Amino acid sequence: MAKDLRSFLTEVVSTGAGQVKHVSKQVDPRFGVTAYGAWYDKRGDYPALLFTDVAGSELPCLTNLVATHERMALALGVDVETLVRSSVAGQGRAAHPPVEFSGDRAPVQEVVWRGDDADLTRLPIPTHNELDGGPFLTAAVGVMRDPESGAVNAGIYRHHIYGPRRLGVWFFGSHDGGTIHRRYAERGEPTPIALVVGHHPAFLMGAVSRVPGIGGEYDAAGAYLGEAVETVPAVTSGIPVPAHAEIVIEGHILPDELEEEGPFAEWPGHYVGGGRKPVIEVDAITMRRDAIFQDIQASGREHRLMGALPRIASIHEAVRQKVPGLRAVNIPLHARMHCYLSIRKDSDTDPTRAAFAALNTEPENLRAIVIVDDDIDVYDEREVAWAIGTRFDASQDLQIIPRWNGPGGLLPTNWSYDSEGGRTPQRSSAVIVDATKPAPPIVFPARARVPEAALAAVDVDAIQTISAVGELPI
Q1: Running DSSP on this structure, what letter comes out for residue 120?
Q2: Distance between alpha carbon 334 and the CA centroid of its chain, in Å?
Q3: What is the per-residue pLDDT for 425?
């Protein structure tokens, strides 16, 4: 049986790897869905949320599916320790190229809406945050075919819903989808696109993986899934789409039409970006008979986690090539514009080489690189802060790279603002913090440690909790 959204939900519930909460009360798609996620977030809890009564739609809505490391680890078939502490949890897996679906009818094409029936407002698409310009698709994997090479590319973009059969698409920065669209537009032709909504989280991770060049995301998704993605031709364009997806929105991007997009709260938690973006016209919507609409809460924990993990892997590979002594990489979820690198330092130039390798891998998002020694746990903020406090001298170990990020984009400092509410794109700086000890043969003061043998000898069974004054042995 092929892995899909349903198989993963079943696995989550049966293994107890994470919570799935059912909200049976009717909710408004405008803020009602995300209100529950925000309510749990304030309490430090991140259950998957299944809404079965979203006003205006007959379809249920699922969100927060992999908002925890535990559920993401389950999706990728690794333990939490490997997911959290290994930057290469998704690497070294055998690629599984997609295969054509061999059944009579693909589940995702059991229902086909065409013409006026292909109405986006029939789907439970949330409006996520207070100042958003409207509903947005946030978990839709856009599948396109490059007109030059024929390669099939996949990626997750944001899509502002303008009306029943019109929505926007924002290809940010170096997105390959933007390159494909430009190639069609230069010919004066519409760009066929299929938006896949609802699949196993490993498929989504493949779609956002950092695959070099155009195409390869289906292979990467197969590697994450541990099996080939079964595909079927889209009913209007023939683009291969996952046969076991929940919903596919088929359409074409107009070659010469733009519409004002946003505002929309992105992962940094601010309202930036927007402007005039390409427009998609919907040709058909296909789905399962009992389809589940999948959403990712914008600027929420799931949004940050899904963005951070593939970037950790790509940064790890890029830095390792320049500095073989790399030990670990972390992009903290609360600050996805920061990156912590731990290295075994052989030369005093290693930290700078490592930092620039990371910055060049993620030039649009990273703002601060902190390099620490290999005795520092980059997944422990206290350890990183301690290294900065004891091994970093601002006059010698701080490098500022002017005009590195931008102009424009998702980070608020990549814009200048005026008193009238206007803004202008600008470039902003990045910083490298070298919190490492001097390279050998310099002798640096030793770190205080309890011997490992003594830690191993601790007998936890001999520890008792004192819960009353009378139990004190004095």
Answers
A1: G
A2: 13
A3: 77
Instruction: Tell me the HSE value of 169 on the side-chain side, using a 13 A CA sphere.
Output: 35
Burial of 154 (0-12, 13-18, 19+ CB in 10 A): buried
Half-sphere exposure of 166 (CA within 13 A, CB side): 11
Pairwise CA distance, residues 65 & 295, whole Å: 9
- Percentage of the chain modeled with pLDDT above 90: 58
**pLDDT interval class at 346 (50, 70, 90):** very high
Is the Cβ–Cβ distance between 414 and 337 less than 8 Å? Answer: no
Average pLDDT for 166-175: 84
Beta-carbon-side half-sphere exposure of residue 85 (alpha carbons within 13 Å)? 8
Angstrom distances, CA of residue 415 to CA of 245, 334, 421, 429? 38, 22, 12, 12
254 alpha carbon, distance to own chain's centre: 27
Class (C level, CATH) for 323-455: alpha beta
Q: DSSP labels for 150-165?
A: --EEEEE-BEEEEETT
What's the pLDDT score for residue 247?
Answer: 98
Residue 122's nearest CA partner among 345, 282, 302 is 282
- The structural domains of the chain, with segments of one domain joined by +, span 5-292, 323-455
pLDDT given at position 17: 57
**pLDDT average, residue stretch 22-50:** 92
| Tokens, residue 84 | 């959290």
Q: What is the pLDDT of residue 172?
A: 75
End-to-end Cα, the chain, rounded Å: 64
Rounded to the nearest 10 degrees, what angle do helices 301-322 and 69-76 cross at? 60
The pLDDT confidence band at residue 86, using thresholds 50, 70 and 90, is: low
Count CB neighbours of 330 within 10 A.
23
Q: Domain 5-292 is of which CATH architecture?
A: Roll (2.30)
pTM of the model: 0.84
Distance from C-alpha of 399 to C-alpha of 421, rounded to nearest angstrom: 33
What was the pLDDT predicted at 309?
Answer: 79
The structure tokens listed for 410 are 């998702």
Confidence of residue 175 (pLDDT cuts 50, 70, 90): confident
Q: Please state, in angstroms and rounded to a whole number, the distance separating the CA atoms of residues 211 and 89.
A: 15
- pLDDT(87) > 60: no
DSSP string for 388-437:
HHHH--HHHHEEEEEEEE-SSSSSGGGEEE-TTS-EEE--EEEEEEEE-P
